[in-house]
Design a protein that fits this description.
Radius of gyration: 21 Å
Number of domains: 2
CATH superfamily of the largest domain: Glycogen Phosphorylase B
Largest sheet: 7 strands, parallel
Number of strands: 15
Order of helices and strands: EHEEEEHEHEHEHEHEHEHEHEHEHEHHH
Shape: globular
Strand order of the largest sheet: 3-2-1-6-7-8-9
CATH topology of the largest domain: Rossmann fold
Strand content: 15-25%
Helix content: 40-55%
CATH architecture of the largest domain: 3-Layer(aba) Sandwich
Structural class: alpha/beta
Number of helices: 14
């Protein structure tokens, strides 16, 4: 199958979706499919597939987009480049990632004109924690769906139950759930001493908290667990890795008098993540019930257990709390979190048990070979005639 993957973000851009699309491209290529990635990020071609980077300019919508920079590619020159790709690459299918970006909308529009089936993967529900912004986004999302998306998307994929529910509410009554993925062993073999020296990590134990800080992953629950944790671990250090778009956790740490236990290092090269994890004893950041992101899968692959708060219905047919009740807590209050984190840090046998269960989860659900097979099945079952 000849597959065109279209995504606004791609490495070296550091986002969960960019890394996922890269892993998907590699996995599909390794399965024998011919892949071409079209992106709005300046990126190099891979040995397994071609990458076409469209020239983009970035707009900054501010707080309504959680301070993310949004790439836009709508020019005649880029339209001609996309049209040339359709003529030369001749895709059997277009797999687009991100339903609100002009690069995916244009690619799907051109594909539909040519009778090429399109699958749209929704990585995030269109939502905001501020009521006014949320209302604006809801109106825009609904209009976009009615005027365009329903006409140019043959099928829909959601990465978890939240995005599947959003698809059914706004875009289509039919969709399938396929989770995000990571490649096996990519985060193994990190050098903890390198990370300690480069980023000034001096505490012990070290809690890594990896991923951009936004309202859906704001780190407040983790900060509120620190006073209890510090009683057992007075030298504890929390290293927060990722772009900070929501500083409420820093304000809360100052209120609680624990800010000196935080090491906020911002966004780092993705290649450094495995070194930071090698210096860490545990990873904690997914605590608001919005599902597991790639930042929660990478530590497990690196041999670092995680503590997360996830809802039972996060993935269709997979109850994370039943699979690993000690790592996936049922409540995200300070007492529960501090108790779970402390037990893992204090009991090496228990830590080993939690990590073994979490690695089984990767083996059964999240490793790229499993996820890529599901994408191929979706392409074949839903859109390939």
């Amino acid at each position: 199958m000849r597959i065109m993957l279209v995504a606004p973000y791609f490495p070296p851009e550091v986002t969960g979706s960019s890394n996922f699309v890269a892993d998907l491209a590699i996995g599909l290529s390794e399965l024998g499919h011919v892949v071409c990635v079209v992106t709005a990020t300046e990126a190099r071609s891979h040995e397994l597939f071609e990458v076409v980077s469209l020239k983009a300019r970035k707009i900054k919508p501010g707080k309504i987009a959680f301070d993310y920079s949004i790439p836009t590619i709508l020019t005649r020159a880029n339209k001609r480049i996309l049209e040339d790709i359709f003529e030369t690459f001749k895709p059997d299918i277009v797999s687009s990632h991100g339903q609100i970006f002009d690069i995916t909308l244009l690619a799907n529009y051109l594909a539909t004109k040519r009778g090429v089936p399109t699958v749209m993967t929704v990585h995030s529900a269109i939502w905001h924690d501020k009521a006014l912004f949320n209302s604006i986004l809801a109106v825009g999302d609904t209009l976009l769906s009615r005027l365009l998306l329903r006409r140019i998307c043959s099928a829909w994929i959601g990465v978890d139950d939240r995005t599947v529910s959003h698809i059914k509410k706004r875009y289509s009554k039919e969709s399938t759930a396929i989770p995000i993925c990571i490649r096996r062993g990519v985060f193994a073999g990190g050098n903890g001493d390198f990370a300690r020296e480069k980023y000034g990590l001096r505490g012990s134990p070290v809690i890594a908290s990896i991923g951009h800080v936004v309202p859906v992953r704001n780190r407040i629950a983790l900060v509120e667990s620190l006073p209890r944790l510090i009683q057992n671990f007075p030298q504890l250090e929390v290293v927060v890795v990722g772009r900070v778009a929501d500083e409420s956790f820093i304000d809360r740490a100052e209120e609680l008098g624990v800010s000196h236990h935080l090491r906020v290092i911002g966004a780092v090269p993705h290649s450094d993540i495995k070194h930071i994890l090698a210096a860490a004893d545990i990873e904690v950041h997914d605590l608001q019930g919005y599902g597991l992101g790639i930042g929660s899968l990478e530590p497990i692959d690196a041999g670092v257990p995680i503590v997360a708060y996830v809802r039972e219905n996060n993935l269709q047919g997979v109850n994370l709390q039943q699979l690993c009740p000690e790592g996936f807590v049922e409540q995200n209050d300070a007492r529960t979190l501090s108790s779970s984190i402390s037990r893992i840090l204090l009991d090496i046998d228990f830590k080993t048990q939690v990590l073994r269960k979490q690695r089984t989860l990767l083996e059964n659900v999240y490793y790229s070979e499993i996820v890529c097979e599901k994408y191929v099945s979706a392409f074949e079952n839903y859109v390939i005639k």
